[in-house]
Amino acid sequence: MSDLFHNRGGYRKLDTFMLATLIYYATVEFCRAHVKSARQQEQMVQAARSGRQNIAEGSERSSTSKETEIKLTDVARASLAELQLDYEDFINLSGNFPWPDDAPEAVAMWHLRLARLEPDQYSPHHFSKKVAENRAAFAKWLVPADPLHMANALVRLCERADFLLRKQIDGMGQRFLEQGGFRENMTRARLEVRDAQNPVCPQCGKPMQKRKAKSGPNAGKDFWGCTGYAEGCRGTREVEG
Length: 241
Hints:
mainly alpha
């Protein structure tokens, strides 16, 4: 039972959450400076916020519902994909094209390493300091005074986040296949506790289960029977008390 909830949370240490945070903050700045429509501002900021918040919520739900964790993480990915299209539209409607994959700016942004929290760091204080470090590292691309440059940079950040979120979702699915879900783990833990409390078979050493005699002089009475009965073990014990 001690390991039943061991996978909850940890989102502040995820590269996807850090990227989503950078995208959210930069989107707020971009919309304030360059998006005139209040409706468009609201939609873009909400999409950026949804990307960030759903990563966190999915991580927090991971211990009790792997399915919910995967769904929320995929919602985050879809929200950032929607936001990326908004930036692409901004560039296209300005009469320009997004950076090609081999553009020096695109290559440099893709390979820039993120500052990460140390293993013993998790607090909002430490996370905010790392966010500041990463914002400084990307500052030359995320300059609000140059809308096209900033929009292109955010397209690339959204693409990088999408790539990592897809890998994250694939990893979640693989862990689910290997480890099972919460209900399966609950059942497994309950059986382990039950087996630890039950006696072991005097003949083969396997755990025993309480059964009820169906015939003979003890018909209707409880007894301990070996769980290896199907393999031929006939070990029994009396139920004390």
